[in-house]
Specification:
Layout (H helix, E strand, L loop, with lengths): L11 H15 L4 H5 L28
Pfam family, one: Peptidase_S37
InterPro entries: Peptidase_S37
């Protein structure tokens, strides 16, 4: 599995299968999605704030 995969960049058929596999992996796939992966939809809308990294870093001593 590629944990850095870009699901949004996949073609629609592959995107639905990838979404279904992610939902199954997370344990939240409905019986409908389990029997028909093309019915998979994201559980939440995209939120760019979640992709931002915390730029504030604590100073650290180095040997």
């Amino acid at each position: 599995m590629n944990h850095g995969a870009n699901v949004a960049g996949l073609v629609p058929r592959e995107k639905a299968l990838a979404t279904a596999r992610i939902l199954d992996w997370a344990g939240v796939a409905s019986p409908t999605v389990q029997s028909n992966p093309s019915a998979a939809k994201p559980l939440a809308a995209y939120d760019a704030k979640l992709d931002r990294r915390d730029v504030e870093r604590e100073p650290a001593l180095r040997p």
